[in-house]
Specification:
Elements (H helix, E strand, L loop, with lengths): L3 E4 L2 E5 L10 E4 L2 H9 L6 H16 L7 H16 L6 H17 L4 H31 L6 E5 L14 H10 L3 E7 L6 H12 L4 E4 L4 H6 L5 E4 L3 E3 L4 E4 L2 H10 L4 E4 L5 E2 L16 H4 L18 E4 L6 E4 L2 E3 L3 H9 L5
Bound molecules: 5-S-methyl-1-O-phosphono-5-thio-D-ribulose.
Length: about 350
């Protein structure tokens, strides 16, 4: 089962807001619908939103009526801007859009048909590359886990969030395949329950044994030595190794350090922002307060309750035991290991 695919001139995707109760696929040839799906988290997870945006640019190509190089360029600038405005934190979105922008630049003088073909090729390539990156991350990361691994993870980093088996969840899947995984603990991941709804759904489908926790149980779990590793994904990694990931990741990292449990971050190199010095430069998306005051449409707070709901937080690089990329496992000092990997990363 794929979370998103190109199907005969259309994009077909699983509506993740409906999971796990309804498994509903949506098919569209409208880039605006893809933008909305990213905005409302029907399509989510850093790598997957990049893939979806790349396909959306390819879809838009079919509606382009421009013939001159400058007309073509300004048409796609508008499309790319629309998609870039959907979510601010995951760099994979901007990375994929940048690749499509370069494709337009390189092909606009050959005419619209050449641009169209090249944009689709690029989107399919981005998708395939991501699947391969997940495989590599899975294998490299599984090697880091102890035998009888009992792993805590946060949010959803699996096939619903990527073009392949997932990043952190890819590592968990590989470790299970190798019969070295004892158990997975999943944070429910408030306020949108990506852990409870999506990771639980994926693990259940794969028959991997798991237990669901409310987000605030992690400390007690670690205190009892029930988990021996924490593995999470990332939405953006700064060039010093600071990590933006689903809010709650920083708390896990502090707890893991206190309890002397390794905390690994798994992400493809498309998640690294080589231009940002540290985590302070990463824009953090703020979510609608209603997601907190009215979970599943039921109001749980008094009127006018003030809410602070960042979608992501920043984990300082010092708290990260290793960053698992498709090019290898990065270790401290991250500034150096990230600089070394720069030339090897996909453009
Ligand atoms: O808001 P979401 O659900 O898009 O957030 C997703 C995460 O934070 C994931 O951990 C991250 O994108 C990595 S997915 C491989």
């Amino acid at each position: 089962m794929k979370s998103l695919e190109w199907n005969n001139g259309k994009v077909r995707f699983l509506d993740q807001t409906r999971l796990p109760s309804d498994v509903i696929y949506i098919e569209t040839d409208d880039e605006g619908k893809i933008a909305n799906a990213i905005r409302d988290l029907s399509i989510r997870g850093a790598p997957l939103i990049g893939i979806a945006a790349a396909y959306a640019v390819a879809l838009a190509a079919n509606k382009c009526g421009e013939e001159t190089p400058s007309g073509i360029a300004s048409y796609f600038d508008k499309v790319i801007n629309l998609l870039a405005g959907t979510r601010p934190t995951a760099i994979n979105l901007f990375w994929a859009l940048n690749r499509q922008k370069n494709v337009v630049e390189a092909n606009k003088r050959q005419g619209l048909n050449a641009v169209r073909t090249a944009l689709l090729q690029e989107a399919l390539g981005i998708h395939e590359e991501d699947a391969a990156m997940c495989e590599a991350i899975g294998n490299l990361g599984a090697d880091l886990l102890p035998n009888a691994a009992s792993v805590l993870t946060h949010c959803n980093t699996g096939m619903l969030a990527t073009g392949g088996i997932g990043t952190a969840l890819g590592i968990i899947r590989k470790c299970w395949e190798q019969q070295r995984l004892k158990h997975v603990y999943i944070d429910e991941t408030r306020p949108l329950f990506q852990g409870a709804r999506l990771t639980a759904w994926e693990l259940r489908n794969d028959r991997i044994p798991f237990t669901l926790l409310t987000d605030n149980v992690a400390g007690f779990l670690m205190q009892q030595r029930i988990v021996n590793a924490v593995v999470v994904g990332a939405d953006r990694i700064a060039s010093n190794g600071d990590v933006a990931n689903k809010v709650g990741t920083y708390s896990l990292a502090v707890l893991a350090r206190y309890h002397d449990i390794p905390m690994y971050v798994a992400a493809p190199t498309s998640t690294i922002d080589f231009d940002i010095k540290n985590g302070k430069g990463i824009p953090i998306e703020q979510r609608n307060p209603k997601e907190v005051t009215e979970p599943f449409g039921k109001k749980v707070t008094p009127d006018d309750t003030d809410v602070y709901s960042p979608a992501f937080d920043i984990t300082p690089c010092d708290l990260v035991s290793g960053i698992v990329t498709e090019k290898g496992v990065l270790s401290k000092p991250y500034e150096q290991s990230i600089r070394r990997i720069r030339g090897m990363a996909s453009s």
